[in-house]
Design goal:
Blueprint lengths: L3 H20 L4 H8 L3 H8 L7 H11 L3 H5 L12 H11 L3 H17 L5
Length: about 120
Amino acid sequence: MPRRRDNVLYAALGARLRAIRTAAGWSQEQLAGAVGIAPNNLSYYENGRKGLTITTLAAIAGVLGTRLADLVDVDLPVPSTIPPPEEDALMRAVRGLPEGAREVVAALARDLARRWPVGA
């Protein structure tokens, strides 16, 4: 049975996890699917009703592209460099390509950026 201090920590970690997930633009369903856990378990974690293992925390950090410390240090500001799920999926796909294909994708991206500048 968890102790009272455990419940306080679970609630703080859950709130932190929710803040980072939502700042990154991930839904509970998207993150749970990417990590390989049930969405209801992620909800329990975020609501402080269930504790997370270090393995699950590490998997979540890996999927969100953040450091494990960003998830567990509840006193740190929420990091702002986490890519949204669509961008993360694209980058994972590009990283999986052979080097020559990655160069073609990079050249295409540079060409598209010149044709349609950000904010235009």
